[in-house]
Amino acid sequence: MPDSHWRPARPADVAAIVHWVETPKALERWAGPGLTWPTEGTTLWQEIDASENASFCLVANDAPIAFGQLVDKGERRAHLARIIVSPDHRRQGLGERLCQHLIAEAHQRGADTVTLNVFVDNLAAIDLYRRLGFVTHGPIDTRGIQPMQLRQFIHDVDNIDP
Ligand SMILES: CC(C)(COP(=O)(O)OP(=O)(O)OC[C@H]1O[C@@H](n2cnc3c(N)ncnc32)[C@H](O)[C@@H]1OP(=O)(O)O)[C@@H](O)C(=O)NCCC(=O)NCCS
């Protein structure tokens, strides 16, 4: 795995990250529906509320190699969002490291529930999330989005997968 450090994201990071996303479908799968395509850094920074939401990067050689957000959903729930690893750095454990940092950050901020949403056909991401301890939590919606929740924080045991 490349050496990297963790820090809050900056607008210049998002300007670099737009080049990791090559199609409108890839943009939607990563960041959700309704975003401008083609996109560029300033627009995307605003559309993903990067100033409002806690946004972080793993950085190597001064350049972002992974990005993710923590959205405060209230009631001590933190929501992982916009998880992405640079295409040149995938399958090296960075997605896992990124999510572990975000989960630790959520704990530090007092969350006792950690959730995320993922398109049900995004098998790479689902594999990663399951490995981290997320389980499906609630029905898939009409757009094919599956809610997941970190198992160790689930209190409603009737709602989780075995
Ligand atoms: C999903 C994503 C973040 C994974 O990042 P990554 O750095 O490649 O993931 P890791 O190397 O940490 O992989 C950890 C585990 O996740 C699973 N995984 C990751 N990529 C996978 C793939 N392409 N196919 C199958 N399993 C995969 C594997 O279990 C993997 O462990 P292994 O490599 O020992 O088999 C990355 O593919 C990505 O940025 N995708 C585009 C954006 C996106 O879809 N984000 C998710 C939005 S919900």
Describe this structure in words.
The protein has a single domain, classed as 3-Layer(aba) Sandwich (Aminopeptidase), CATH 3.40.630. A seven-stranded mixed β-sheet has the order 1-2-3-4-5-7-6, sandwiched between helices. It has 162 residues and is α+β, with helices and mostly antiparallel strands. The protein is globular, with a radius of gyration of 15 Å. The model has no long low-confidence stretch (mean pLDDT 93). 29% of the residues lie in helices and 28% in strands. β6 (134-136) and β7 form a beta hairpin. Bound molecules: coenzyme A (COA). The site of coenzyme A (COA) has 20 residues, from α2, β4, α4 and α5. Coenzyme A binds next to α2, β4, α4 and α5.
Q: Looking at CATH, which topology would you report? A: Aminopeptidase
Main sheet properties:
7 strands, mixed
Cα shape: globular
Helices and strands, in order, run as: EHHHEEEHEHEE
- Tell me, what is the CATH class? Alpha Beta
Low-confidence stretches: none
The tally of domains stands at 1
Number of strands: 7
pLDDT averaged over residues: 93
Features:
single chain; 162 residues; alpha+beta; Aminopeptidase; 7 strands; globular; binds coenzyme A
What does the secondary structure layout of this molecule look like, with pairings?
Elements: E1 5-8, H1 11-17, H2 24-31, H3 41-47, E2 54-60, E3 63-72, E4 77-85, H4 94-108, E5 113-119, H5 123-132, E6 134-136, E7 145-150
Parallel strand pairs: 4-5
Antiparallel strand pairs: 1-2, 2-3, 3-4, 5-7, 6-7
Helix pairs in contact: 1-3, 4-5
